[in-house]
Structures are given as structure tokens and as C-alpha cells.
């Protein structure tokens, strides 16, 4: 089946006085209908930049320098080139077909407008044919959908808890029945219990409505629980992409293994956890070979000289010379 979202060779630079910072360096990613794809990596690896590039929200000094994003929703007979959309076509596409819940989104609600007015504005802009009464009914249905009581419609954002505000943002993201919702750290600012409630609500909504989610976080243990597939990002690239169960049981990239070791999972035994020594590279400096080479316990000579991109290894896609060498040894 055609993926709902296809990201190909995406590159994003930030132009700075000292030269370009290569924040996203050639990302390929497919998202299938209804699936939850997690994107994980340390701070600064380019997750948010990728999310903004996919949703066409990049603003200067960020620039898309190469690549494409293609979308094909349930009702599309032909693929939509998201990277080529402009003006009203782009405004109509956003929220309607692909929506976003960003980091700290709950603080993005307008403080002087009641929740119902903010949700109604969205219908007003995207569904102008609806009457006022119909818009009001939709708002009630939406709040109910995300588990909020009716009175929330009449509330101002400051009268709601963080968890309730984040549910309002999720309601907004789902208002127009999109095929894809991109979520960047949607629960990070919330306490663990509220986080759990929101994730459970999200899982239930996905079952009922069938939208796909791109879920971005630095928390691998969370992604292992909720994702169908996981993309591990390092220094602006996806270095491993695969089924989340396979990735947990048999991580292929040494960075993925390091991340797994750094995060406790709910089911894992209590034992010492180790961070990955060293730091990610400076993305303002061109990278020769594998960006993880200087932190990798399995480094080989070619790792510091020769670039390596994703290739299939045992049902997972991995960008690592360990496997290119093994393949040569096997075939040779
Ligand atoms: N305005 C900017 N100017 C220059 N460089 C930037 C700018 N914004 C981000 N960057 C750089 O781009 C890279 C990717 O940043 P990005 O915020 O996408 O990473 P991230 O993985 O989402 O991090 P976090 O988890 O901390 O949000 C980083 O190296 C960052 O320093």
C-alpha cells in the first residue's frame, strides 16, 4: 500500500553568520496509514527541524536545501507534493490533511480567548460552509472525543491544567480529521500520570479514527511502548529504522544499542544505566564518514573516512559499516 507520507533525501540548513549548520542531512522515511512512527535521538540531532520541514513550518534562518515530502491520504487519487505547496493550497493542506502538536503547544493557546472560540476559528477557516450552530456542535463532539467535559469550551486556557490544555491541542489537531498528526514532545512538559492518560487517549483515538502519527521524543523507553516503528536519529540522519519490537530485542546500530542501555524500560530489570560517552558532532563542520565514529566502540578504519547510508539488515534498515563489512565477508 502507498505510504501516506514519503520523505526523501531531506536536507535542512540553518544559515548562520559563521556558515551553514547542517541540521538535517538526508532523511528518508515512509509513514504508512494508521501507523505510529517514533523518531528518537539526543537533543540537537535534528528531530524538531525534521518535523518543521515535514509540516512546511520552517522559517529563516532554516532552509530546505534538498529533498521532497510526498503525501497521499485516503481521499487522494494522486500524490500531493508537500514541498511544492504554496499559498492557500498549503494553508488548506495544513490542519486538514496533516496537523501538528508541538513542544509546549499547550502554551500556544490564545490566553484571552475561550477554548470554544479557538476551536470554532479552525472550523470557520477550513469549513466555511458550517453554520454557527454546527460549529458549536462540532466543538462539543471534539472535546468529548479527547475526554474533556463540556464546560471546558467556556473556559479560558489559564483555567485549565496543563494536561487539559494539551488535550485541547490534540482536539485541535484532530478537528478536521487529518491523515497524519506530527507530534513533537507532546507530553514532555506533563507529569508522568497525566502523560500516561494522554498517551492512552491517543492510542484509543488512533484505533477509532485511523490517523497516522509521527511522534518525536528523546525518550526511547516511551517510544518502545507506543510505536509500531522507530527511526533513530543521530547528527541529522536516521541511522536505524525498524519495527519497535525488533529494535528493542536486536538493536543493530551501536548508537541504538547505546540509547537502549541509557534508558530503563518498564519491563527491564533494575541495573546501572550508562549514558553514551562523548558528544554529538558540530553540525556546522562537514562530517567525513559516520558521524557516530568517534563515540563508537566498534569503530573501523572506514568509519572515519567513508559515508554510510541506510541499508536493509535482517528486516531493519541500518546505516553502519559493521554490516557493510559483514556483507562483503559473507559474499566474498
Ligand atoms: N536558529 C538556529 N540557528 C542555528 N542552528 C540551529 C538553530 N536552531 C537549531 N539549530 C541547530 O540545528 C540542530 C538541530 O536542532 P533541533 O532543534 O532540530 O534538534 P532536536 O533533536 O529537536 O533537539 P531538542 O530535542 O533539543 O529539541 C542543532 O545542532 C541545533 O543547534
Automatic annotation (TrEMBL):
Matches recorded under InterPro entries: AAA+_ATPase (IPR003593), ABC_Ni/Peptide_Import (IPR050388), ABC_transporter-like_ATP-bd (IPR003439), ABC_transporter-like_CS (IPR017871), Oligopep_ABC_C (IPR013563), P-loop_NTPase (IPR027417)
Keywords associated with the record: ATP-binding, Cell membrane, Membrane, Nucleotide-binding, Transport
Subcellular location: Cell membrane
Pfam families: ABC_tran, oligo_HPY
Coiled coil stretches, renumbered: none
Annotated ABC transporter domain residues: 5-260
Molecular functions (GO terms): ATP binding
SMART domains with a match to the protein in the record: AAA (SM00382)
Topology within the bilayer: Peripheral membrane protein
Family: Belongs to the ABC transporter superfamily.
Name of this protein: ABC transporter ATP-binding protein
Amino acid at each position: 500500500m502507498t505510504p501516506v507520507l514519503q520523505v526523501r533525501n531531506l536536507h535542512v540548513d540553518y544559515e548562520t553568520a559563521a556558515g551553514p549548520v547542517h541540521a538535517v542531512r538526508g532523511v528518508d522515511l515512509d509513514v504508512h496509514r494508521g501507523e505510529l512512527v517514533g523518531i528518537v535521538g539526543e537533543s540537537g540531532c535534528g528531530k524538531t527541524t525534521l518535523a518543521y520541514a515535514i509540516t512546511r513550518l520552517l522559517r529563516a534562518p532554516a532552509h530546505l536545501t534538498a529533498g521532497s515530502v510526498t503525501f497521499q491520504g485516503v481521499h487522494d487519487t494522486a500524490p500531493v507534493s508537500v514541498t511544492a505547496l504554496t499559498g492557500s493550497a498549503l494553508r488548506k493542506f495544513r490542519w486538514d490533511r496533516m496537523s501538528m502538536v508541538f513542544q509546549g503547544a499547550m502554551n500556544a493557546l490564545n490566553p484571552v480567548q475561550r477554548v470554544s472560540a479557538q476551536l470554532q476559528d479552525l472550523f470557520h477557516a477550513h469549513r466555511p460552509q458550517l453554520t454557527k450552530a454546527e460549529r458549536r456542535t462540532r466543538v462539543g463532539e471534539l472535546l468529548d472525543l479527547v475526554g474533556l467535559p463540556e464546560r471546558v469550551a467556556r473556559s479560558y486556557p489559564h483555567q485549565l491544567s496543563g494536561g487539559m490544555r494539551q488535550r485541547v491541542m490534540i482536539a485541535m489537531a484532530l478537528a478536521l480529521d487529518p491523515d497524519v498528526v506530527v507530534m513533537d514532545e507532546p507530553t514532555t512538559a506533563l507529569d508522568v500520570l497525566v502523560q500516561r492518560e494522554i498517551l492512552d487517549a491517543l492510542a484509543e483515538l488512533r484505533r477509532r479514527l485511523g490517523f497516522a502519527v509521527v511522534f518525536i521524543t528523546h525518550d526511547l523507553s516511551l517510544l518502545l511502548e507506543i510505536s509500531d516503528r522507530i527511526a533513530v536519529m543521530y547528527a541529522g540522519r536516521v541511522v536505524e529504522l525498524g519495527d519497535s519490537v525488533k529494535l528493542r530485542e536486536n538493536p543493530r546500530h551501536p548508537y541504538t544499542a547505546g540509547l537502549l542501555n541509557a534508558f530503563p524500560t518498564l519491563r527491564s530489570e533494575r541495573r546501572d544505566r550508562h549514558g553514551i560517552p562523548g558528544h554529538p558532532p558540530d553540525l556546522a563542520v562537514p562530517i567525513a564518514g559516520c558521524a557516530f565514529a568517534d563515540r563508537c566502540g566498534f569503530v573501523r578504519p572506514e568509519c572515519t573516512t567513508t559515508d554510510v547510508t541506510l541499508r536493509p539488515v535482517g528486516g531493519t534498515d541500518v546505516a553502519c559499516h559493521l554490516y557493510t563489512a559483514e556483507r562483503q565477508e559473507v559474499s566474498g
